[in-house]
Amino acid sequence: MKRAAAGIAAMVIALTVSTSGGPIQAAGPPLRYLASAPSTLDPAFIADAGDVQFLLQVYAGLTRLDERGEPYPSLASGWEISGDGLTYTFTIRDGLEFSDGSDLVAEDIRRSWLRLLDPATDATAPDVLSVVSGASARLAGNAEEEDVGISAPDDTTLVVTLEHPASYFLDIVATPATFVVPSSADATATWQRPDAFVGSGPYVVASTDGADTVLSANEHYVAGPPPIDEIRWVGSVDADPATAFADGAVDLTEVAGWDATWIAYDPDLGPHLHAAEPLTVSYFGFDTTRPPFDDARVRRAFALALDRERLVPLAAGASSTAAASIVPPAIWPDGFSPKLETDQDEAGRLLDEAGYEDRADLGTIVVNGTGLGVEPAVETWRDALGADVEIENMDFGDFLATVDTRPPEIFTINWIADYASPNALYGLLLESGAASNYGAWQDDTFDQLLRDAAEAPDDEVGAAYQEVDDYVAEQAPVIPWAYGETWWLVADGLRGLGNLTVGLLDLGRVSWDG
Fold first, then answer.
1. Can you tell me the distance from the alpha carbon of 426 to that of 69, in angstroms, rounded to the nearest whole number?
2. 376 in Cβ contact with 315 (< 8 Å)
3. What residues contact 418, with CB distance under 8 A and at least 6 apart?
4. Rounded to an integer, what distance in angstroms lies between the CA atom of residue 151 and that of residue 81?
5. 3-state DSSP percent of the chain in helix, strand and coil, to 5
């Protein structure tokens, strides 16, 4: 599964940056960006990182992220935070409009958030707002809209009350799942169409052309129309991405790590190649609701059996590195330093202690192996632990269909951080009751450690999240597996992508030289 409920795409691209100092004049041809076609035009139904990237171009929220991953004002001109960190009062800009010229006011933001939290909507990423007071209860159907801590006392004021202080809240409201949608939005995924699109971002969906989606500049955007008049979201090409770029068919494309190894030495393509610091992680998850993985000792044994530094390159190739934590390194705070552990003797001892001296008592363990290259791990569990493990391939839709009935004992997930905080991984994937906590792990100690980290002062955040990570390693509801590496080919003259360390490709800030 590849997923981003409002994700972060982290890039390190050495290009000329224009992040301040007045508008850039619109000039040049359309930007042709090779990317998969979006699966939705609705922020409530984000399916993967590609949807996040697309929806960022056509909707806007209270804040956006710059190339350093820092939030800056967008629909909000500013905000005040109460002394206890629980209340955020946002000042919404005067005169905002949707792309069709209709007014955009504070109530539209409140309505959009309540729609995301409405259980009838069945949104894919509502947990991004779970820190808002009453949000989790509303999602569970145990509260009404008026019980949620979101109010719009007038057109230019939005007041948000949190369950607990959260230093990352301004990052949350920069994620596309929280972006504002028009009042025509309903609880279905089909209300928005290319031929009648209404958005709030730098671009609007103008049309489709075969596999391509054509975006045109939004004259009503809060920051003014973007420098490039048209973006062509190229859905497919006849050749591989590197060849399409070399042939001049596209201006911007991601390339696989194995292609980057030869592109770097190509005299023509090499100068266009730029590394991307990943915010993605792949991991194994356990169904913690039934034996044998309801026992932390068994989960820990399966984790300790894997020499990830040796196995990950065998499974994922040289472009991936072994993951010591589900938190990708790009968002490790100071003082956070997880360690890889391998101890097959201890793994065997833990299984014995858990009552599985006879490994046959573990039963046949099914691993959903789609998309992760699980064979080296499975072979290790068979050889080092004596476990009977079978691989079953299923796509993400099939996997989700099993979550509430009988999921595989071990499942595989590829995830991208929703915002630039460790909480984007721990909270959405492991907190009790979280929609994406597919293994249904519930642990009060973990939940409290996570809340303590969210409330920690800046100089203690790293140490607080280290406690969280140490506890996760001990209890092993998941096994972090690999951090992916991505590369980009970028056309000459394209500026404004920035030296991104944690930030999204915000094409509304991009321009052509001249």
1. 19
2. yes
3. 4, 5, 6, 7, 8, 125, 128, 172, 175, 177, 424, 428
4. 15
5. 30, 20, 50
* Contact in structure between 250 and 401 (CB atoms under 8 Å): no
**35 close to 447: Cβ distance less than 8 angstroms:** no
Q: Which residues contact 358 (CB under 8 A, 6 or more apart)?
A: none
Q: What is the value of pTM for the model shown? A: 0.84
Give the residue among 236, 241, 246, 278 at the shortest CA–CA distance from 258: 241
Rg (CA), the chain: 23
3-state SS assignment for residue 458:
helix
Question: Cα dist. 325→303, 456, 481, 503 in Å?
Answer: 12, 20, 8, 21
First to last CA, the chain: 41
In Å, how far are 101, 341, 493 from 185, measured between CA atoms?
A: 16, 48, 38
Alpha helices in 159-206 (DSSP H): 169-172
Structure tokens belonging to residue 5:
């409920």
Per-residue pLDDT of the chain (514 residues; tens, 9 = 90+): 344 333 333 333 333 333 333 444 455 799 999 999 999 999 999 888 889 899 999 999 999 988 777 899 999 999 999 999 999 999 999 999 999 999 999 999 999 999 999 999 999 889 899 999 999 999 999 999 999 999 999 999 999 999 999 989 999 999 999 999 999 997 666 788 888 899 999 999 999 999 999 999 999 999 999 999 999 999 999 999 999 999 999 999 999 888 898 999 999 999 999 887 767 899 999 999 999 999 999 999 999 999 999 999 888 665 688 999 999 998 899 999 999 999 999 999 999 999 999 999 999 999 987 666 799 999 999 999 999 999 988 777 677 777 766 788 999 988 888 788 899 999 999 999 888 899 999 999 999 999 999 999 989 999 999 999 999 999 999 999 999 777 899 999 998 876 444 446 889 999 998 6
Greatest C-alpha distance within the chain: 72
